[in-house]
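User: C-alpha cells for this one?
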Amino acid sequence: MIQKLLIKNYAIIEELEINFSSGLTIITGETGAGKSILLGALGLIMGNRADTKSLYDHEKKCIIEAYFQVKKYKVKTFFAKNEIDYDDELIIRRELTPSGKSRAFINDTPVNLKMLQQLSGSLIDLHQQFDTLDIHNVSFQLRMIDALAGNNDLLEKYQSAFQQYTSGKRNLTKLLEKSRLADNESDFLKFQLQEFKEGELIEGELERMETEITKLSNAEDIKRTLGGAFQSISESESSVISNLEEIGMALSSLRKVYPELDKIMERFDGAVLEIQDVASEFERIADETEHDGERIMEIQNRLDLIYKLQNKHHVKTVNELLSIQTDLQSKVGAFADLSIEIEKTEKDIEKFEQNSLEIIYSLPKNSFTLISDGKKNIYATKEWKVSNDNITQISNAELQRISNLKSPNKVLAVVQFKIHKIIKHDGITLVLDDINDPGNLGTIIRMCDWFGVKQIICSKNTVDIFNPKVVQSAMGSAFRVQVNYTDLENYLSEIKTPIYGAFMDGKNLKEVKLPKSAHLVLGNEANGISAEINKLITDKVAIKNIGKSAESLNVAVATSILLHVFCD
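Assistant:
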C-alpha cells in the first residue's frame, strides 16, 4: 500500500507531500487543479519516461518519491532476483536533472526503467479508459485464474524455484564458457607444470652442482697441485716440515740462555702443527679427488635442464623457477576446481528443475480439486447419452473452445494427474532416449498399456508427456502407465537387470533368449541410442529386416514389435 508521495519541482508543484491513509483516499478538484499531475508523478514512479518540460524550475532537479508498505505483497522474489535489499518499508525514487538525465532507485539501489516497471506494476494499479480490454490479455487471464484458484503461495514458491533454476543456468553457461576458453590454456599450463615435475627442482641445487662440476672438471689439476704441495711440505727430503723441525731443535738450545724465546717458540710450534694439518688436508683432498666422467655428464644434463627452464621463463635462479611452479600448480588446480564447480552447478540445476516441476505439477492438481469439489468435472454435449451427476452439459461450440482437438468427440473430462516416482519391479521397463515426436510418445504409451508395461523411463530431452498431442495419441493410457523423466546415464548405471538396446546391427530378436525382467532401450529415429547410453547396453537386439528395402522402422512401430516379443 502506498503511504506517502513526495513531489519536488514537478509541473506546477514546487514541493508537495501527500500522506495516504489505510482506507479510501479521494483526490478531487476543479479542472486544472492538478489531479492529472499527481497521476503523472505516479507514472514516473511506475517507470514512465521523463521529460525536462515537466520541471517547475528548469535550473533544479526534480524528485518524486513514493513510500510503500509491501509486507503483504508478493515481491520478495523480485528483490531476490535483482539482488536488491528487501524491507517491508519500500521507497521508490525518480530523479530528473535539468540536463535531461533521469535516474531511478529502489531502496537507494539504482535500477533501470524496466525493473521499475516490473515492481511498480505489482504495487500500483491505475484504471483508465479502455482498461477492460485487459480481459483479452492472456497474462491477465492467467492471473485471474490463479487468484480464483488460490495459487498465490504456489506461484511464489515456483517463482523462487524458477529463479534459482535460471540463475543456475546462467551461472553454468558462464562456467562452461570459462571452461571452454580455459581448455587450451589448461593443456599448455599442464605441459609446463609437467616439465617442472620432471625436473624435480630443489632449492639451492644449482649453486651446488655448478661448484661440483667445476671441481670434477679440474680434478687432475687439483689432485696434482695439492699432491705436490703435500709432498713439498711433508714428504720430500727437504720438505718444509723437516726444515722447520731442524730450526726448532736449533732454537730450543737457546732457551736456556735466552728465556724470552719460550713464548716465541710456543708460537713457532703452533705454526708447525698448523702447517702439518694443512698438509694433511691437502693430502685428503688429493686422495678424494677423482675424475668421474659419468658424474660430470649427469650434472651437465641436470644443469642443461635447469638452464633451459631459466631461459624459457626468463629467470636466473632456481628459487624463481620454484615460485613459477607453485603458480602453475595453483592455476591448474583452479581448472580442476572449475570442473568440480560445473558438476555441482549441474546437480543444483537438476534439483532446482525438479523442485520447479513438482510445483508445476501441483498447480493443475490444485485447480482440478476446485472443479472436483463442485462435482462437475465431466463436460459433454447432449448427444452423449450418459446420466451422471458429475456431468455438465455444454454445447458443441463450447466443447470446441475448451478442447485442443479439431473435432472433439462429445465429451471432455478434467482429471487429476499423479506425480510418480521411479519404482523397482519385476517385468519389462521401457527406456526412451530422446524421443522427440509427441505422436510417437503417445503411441508408445498406448503400446505399453496394451502389453502390460507399467513404467517408462524417459531422458530429459524426450518430449513432455503433457504435450497435447502426446495426451491425444495416448488415448487415456497416460493415466495408467507411469512415465518418469531422469538422467538416463545415472539411472542405467545403477540398475542390476539386463539392459537391451534396439539397434540395426543387433542380434536377431527371435534368436535371443529374453529374461522376464529387463530394461529395453529405444532411441530416436534420426540418431538412434546416444553414445553415452550405448556404453551401458548389455545386449543389442534387432528386428530382422526381411524386405531389405526400408532403411528403418518408426520408433512406435518398433516398440510394438519388441514388446510383443519381450512380453509374450
